[in-house]
Design a protein that fits this description.
The protein is of the alpha/beta class. The protein is about 35% helix and about 20% strand. The structure holds pyridoxal-5'-phosphate. Pyridoxal-5'-phosphate (PLP) binds next to helix 4.
Amino acid sequence: MKLFDVYPINPINIVKGVGSLVYDDKGTEYLDLYGGHAVISIGHTNPHYVMRLEDQLHQIGFYSNSVEIPLQKQLAEKLGQVSGKEDYQLFLCNSGAEANENALKLASFYNLKKKVIAFKGAFHGRTSLAVSATDNPKIIAPVNETNNIIFLPWKDETALVEAFETNDISSVIIEGIQGVGGIQVAPEGFLQKIRSLCDEHNAVFIADSVQCGYGRSGKFFSHDFAGVNADIYTMAKGMGNGFPIGGIIISPKIKPAYGMLGTTFGGNHLACAAGLAVLEVIERDNLLQNAAEVGGYLIEELKKFKQVVEVRGRGLMIGIELPAELSSVRKDLLFKHHIFTGEAKPNVVRLLPALNLTKAYADRFLEAFAETLNQ
Ligand SMILES: Cc1ncc(COP(=O)(O)O)c(C=O)c1O
């Protein structure tokens, strides 16, 4: 059998990882500033994480949501404590798309309305509603087409107000920092406006924190910079440091009912052990502060390169926009300097490293970046 060939891949076979470094099958060392697409939050094979998962595997790996799983309650408690959203409720699932799918559905169950506001440049995943709310017609199949999604220009308050005046809005879904869209930071005033319009119109504010959440921005949720709460936060990626786990946290005003949401795998024992290990390390090693400090340092240093069009982002979610003629920078970083980075269109280098990236590794990148630009 062949693989279903949907990914353009680099000819590199990664067989080992330690912290911010990964190694291929020939023993070549790479600096990982991509984290497998923002997934590695506490570093590859973090010892506490490995120990937690190993211990759990020796006890029980999986049982379904038909029995008590105390680890879920422990995870909810820890997440409330670390995120500061202690009065929220946790529903666990398996991926970012699934988190957004559940959030959009839950919003509609809550206010019995249908229309969703999403934004140009947004990426919310590949399941039915999540992909419909994603601004990329190429990945929307005919069966996903719906007139329930209203796409608005990014950061356009006038369009936002008008959409609320002319439609019965169920929810607004927005990334605090657009990732796939090229590291675009949502202005604080814009998030505050969404909050007040949602309150006024009984709509649900959904903060897609799948990529920009879990401490990546230097705050637990990047939407927190605006000083307002969303009704639902969606999470995945960094939540399990590579173990597939996603979740949504839900404001106390939205009440649960049996059968409203559900999943076979979500919240299983192993996933919870991974999720707990991540939060324990984030807390123990002060990783929000490290993301803010090392990220802030990188952003300031990157702004000094005169060839760079713009540096955007917060904490360790950084976009470096380059002019079209510097289109081979990412490739050079990978194949000449052995540094993994991400990309966004048209020519943005995306940095999404582990939250415990050291300043020494940041400097290693800056040196390689300078050399690449000067070639
Ligand atoms: C902001 C955002 N939301 C949702 C998703 C979908 O997550 P997943 O690939 O885990 O379904 C992604 C993935 O890149 C994302 O960046």
